[in-house]
Amino acid sequence: MSNPMTTAVSPLIDTAGSGSEWLARYSDSLMNVFGAPQRVLVRGEGCTVWDADGKAYLDLLGGIAVNALGHAHPFVTSAIAGQLNTLGHISNFFTSPTQVGLAEKLLQLVQAPAGSKAFFSNSGTEAIEAAFKLARRHSTGGRTRIIAMDRAFHGRTMGALALTAKPAYREPFAPLPGGVEHIPYGDVEALRAAVDATVAAVFIEPIQGEAGVQVPPAGFLEAAREITRDAGALLVFDEVQTGIGRTGRWFASEGVLPDAMTLAKGLGSGFPIGGLITFGPEVSALLAPGQHGTTFGGNPVATAAALATLSVIDADGILANVQATGNFLRDGLRGVDGVTEVRGEGLLIGIDLAQELAPAAVQAALDAGFIINATGPATLRLAPPLILTTDQAATFLAAFPSILQAAAATTIGQS
Ligand SMILES: *Cc1c(COP(=O)(O)O)cnc(C)c1O
């Protein structure tokens, strides 16, 4: 690989500067909603990124389950550049072949019945907002309630926040859009008790990502389908994190058809795009002309990025790689001292630790040249690019025990 320090030059800004200099400028100029950034990154290639000080990292988080094909994938970047060179933005007064082509391709991949439709947004939370508005339109006969799950994460805009469970995210912004109730995730009887003719929609993540990669009991999605169908409520699967090959299947909910599905994160392999798919003609007609919209959503460049992503996943046998590398990682992690549970499917992996070392482990992993993520005090998450090889995964498995030891040393030192 070429020298990162000589290829990160930008004509727009002088990129010279150490990580600590950039971080000082960051804290003087960026709103402090994310906390201090862990590193200043200047370049990526495949599953590797480099920081401003020239240090390389194996990226096992992929921009939070986003960089499906890693960094600077040549086919994706050329599709984006080619489209931008031809036609970049047009508004939804117009359409483009890539927008139509992406809608057709996604409808085929989700095995949607005739009359199903797609809507494109720029992010996951906007896809959820569209689904929330869809649910409000399914209000005939006084369906005012919406059911979501404990520990659910659906985004940060006000509608999505109403569906998100975490009090620390919700409470500073009350009042949120009303009517949403949270019930235990994976609990068929709780769902059966909650859903009746007053419910407009039920929102479910097929695997809860932000909650630490929680996999529901077998049969939960099938039961949710049956319960919502019987009650006439919409079933919405939020596949923003689990969709587009993340679990080794195109969609984590494969085999159970919802009434609506939201997508985003991996769809554009790093280029921002989200989507809502509605299943069948009746659900697809709930949002009438003029009732929803977006300026940027579904633009030619974003839809080209998504089409390129889908075609590489198809052509390169990526789903089989996700299964193989995911199983290899999970098997290797299960034997590690200090690990109490390993969860997930494909390359969405949650790791529970015996002690509350997860934030310290993230720091120790960075020092050792790996990017990982903590979803809680004792839980780590991996969501690497879908192109991660078993050789790359093996370098992490080899380093992980000493990462946990270093984390324990710093944590004990603090207390
Ligand atoms: C990340 C995420 C969202 C929100 O997506 P953004 O692009 O961050 O707005 C919604 N739902 C799920 C399941 C997610 O993981």
UniProtKB/TrEMBL annotation:
Family annotation (Gene3D superfamilies)? Aspartate Aminotransferase, domain 1, Type I PLP-dependent aspartate aminotransferase-like (Major domain)
The top EC class, named as a word, is transferase
Which cofactor does the UniProt annotation name?
pyridoxal 5'-phosphate
What does the subunit comment say? Homodimer.
Q: Which NCBIfam families match?
A: argD, PRK03244.1
Q: In which pathway does it act?
A: Amino-acid biosynthesis; L-arginine biosynthesis; N(2)-acetyl-L-ornithine from L-glutamate: step 4/4
Where pyridoxal 5'-phosphate binds, per the record, is at G124, T125, F153, D238, E239, V240, Q241, T295
So what does this thing catalyse?
N(2)-acetyl-L-ornithine + 2-oxoglutarate = N-acetyl-L-glutamate 5-semialdehyde + L-glutamate
Q: Which CDD domains match?
A: OAT_like
**What further note is attached to this protein's record?**
May also have succinyldiaminopimelate aminotransferase activity, thus carrying out the corresponding step in lysine biosynthesis.
Tell me its family.
Belongs to the class-III pyridoxal-phosphate-dependent aminotransferase family. ArgD subfamily.
PTM N6-(pyridoxal phosphate)lysine: list the residues.
K265
Q: Name the lineage.
A: Bacteria, Bacillati, Actinomycetota, Actinomycetes, Micrococcales
List GO molecular-function terms, semicolon-separated.
N2-acetyl-L-ornithine:2-oxoglutarate 5-aminotransferase activity
Q: Which residues bind N(2)-acetyl-L-ornithine?
A: R156, T294
Q: Which gene encodes it?
A: argD
Q: Which UniProt keywords apply?
A: Amino-acid biosynthesis, Aminotransferase, Arginine biosynthesis, Cytoplasm, Pyridoxal phosphate, Transferase
Return the protein name. Answer: Acetylornithine aminotransferase
Where does this protein reside within or beyond the cell? Cytoplasm
Organism for this UniProt entry: Arthrobacter koreensis
Q: Extract the InterPro entries matched here.
A: AcOrn/SuccOrn_fam, Aminotrans_3, Aminotrans_3_PPA_site, Class-III_PLP-dep_AT, PyrdxlP-dep_Trfase, PyrdxlP-dep_Trfase_major, PyrdxlP-dep_Trfase_small
Give the signal peptide as a residue range, or say none if absent. none
Any transmembrane segments, and where? none
